[in-house]
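Predict the holo structure. Ligand: manganese (II) ion.
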Amino acid sequence: MMTKNPTVLKWLSEIRELVQPDKEMWITGEEAQLEELRKEAVATGEMIKLNEEKLPGCYLHRTKPNDVARVEDRTFICSRKKENAGPTNNWCDPQEMYKRLYDIARGTYRGRTMYIIPFSMGPIGSPLAKIGIEVTDSIYVVLNMAIMTRVGTKVMETLGDSNDWVRGFHAKCDVDPEKRYICQFPEDNTIISVNSAYGGNVLLGKKCFALRIASYQGWKEGWMAEHMLILGIENPKGEIKYVAAAFPSACGKTNLAMLIPPKYLRDKGYKVWTVGDDIAWMRIGPDGRLYAINPENGFFGVAPGTNEHSNFNALASTRKNTIFTNVALDLDTNTVWWEKLNENPPKHAIDWRGNPWDPSKYDKNDKLSAAAHPNSRFTAPAVNCPCLSSEFNSTSGVPISALIFGGRRAKLAPLVYQAKDWAGGVFVGASVSSETTAAAAGAVGVVRHDPMAMLPFCGYHMGDYFTHWLEMGEKLGDKAPKIFHVNWFRQDENGNFIWPGFGDNMRVLNWILDRCEGKADAVETAIGYLPHPEDIDLTDLDMDRETLASILTVDKDAWLAEMDGLSEYFDKFGDRLPPSFRERIASIRKDLQ
Ligand code: SAT
Ligand code: MN
């Protein structure tokens, strides 16, 4: 027993009685204990130990083919009142859902061990951090949580007798998709996840706590939990400015967070430092500015497409002490492979389903023939990252100069534009749309509205969430970060990306920072401030000004149509939509005419 905290003991005894475990184990965070668990997982086949020389401390795990992504249609916000979950969330009455979930989970730990994982989201003891306890019957979950969060005895010591902690209960049951539920009970600080063993559904510190529960807590307590990466940009004078950026899942947040500047900028002395790649918790600091921490301690990144060129730092982060999920196993070397890791697919490999994979049958256009699942992942410790910020463990967080929203849009949205003010930026965030990706079950490539990239992650009524954003801006006043929108994904008529992306996105970040410091000019348009094409540095880039100019325009008719779609979308939020949004649509329409 690791605690005398009465609220913890009471909850644990309730769960214990329900699931009937054979054994019980508190996760202390000690390496020896984790190593025992790795050995056990290898012995049972739950994990495969990889080549100790090439990939020291690394393991491969395969989930069931029916359990490879988040399941948004089975994710619920169980607030007491339906209207508080809002129109973008599935809702169920909490008492009814508790009963349903308890019935599903009853007795399912028989013959299994109940692992109790105390974890801290954020540096232990930071005023911006929060504590949770996850109970699970999966060693895979324990080992992933031990990478993604700070776990162990120190967390319980820090919690003491407090009741300010999040209850996370996971039971893999039979991994039955028909009985799979991912449920958040925001008013009870509780998460219950059953019948899944895939990352986003079961690493309860991540989307379930750090976004769905925390967004609700932030609303009640006056702070913000956002689906944002955090990065620091160091200029040649050694000054570091931080930005946070929101993109839907699998739109390149990890790539942007770890980007390597183009050579001409590196030569001048520019550097990028990673604070976080997925989630930001932000509070107003003592000086009135907005400060951010990354509540996580590792990266749960998409593997396919990650390579030395696209994301050197992410790949480097995965070369030791990493758990790979649903990638391919190269039998000749006992290492891992995924699409676009390199040009040499393994000759003898096992695909993500566990079947022999024939590279000669691999067809780029047929996702099902891929060796690695399109949403296959690496779970890598943040300390592995060569460009990890020295502020990563800072308890006070980093001051944010700019907030950036982005989506994956083949057409319409320009490469970059700046909102006219905070309220305009909130409107820009609320109007984010993006093509869907493999990170969630369902069709890929369909444009859907995804306000602030939080559509699957907001734990309360999204209209109230917009209002909370507006109120944060009022509190921040002239210390508020500037807000921008970017789109790296514009395509030409042949479906080729126009902007090179990756490290070259630094050119856009530099314009953004120059704007924050009043150093760059801009063109005022109906939707916001756009750069003059000559204000984006194209040094060493194989791109002409006209091509750049073509993605720095505001197409009047397309934007009028966008406003129509947005206006209709906003109807959803009824009388909880901030009235200023309607006024803004009207004024943008007028300015476009
Ligand atoms: O699947 S996760 O939610 O863990 C990752 C993501 O979708 O961003
Ligand atoms: Mn994410």
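The first strand starts at residue 23 and ends at 26. The mean pLDDT is 96.
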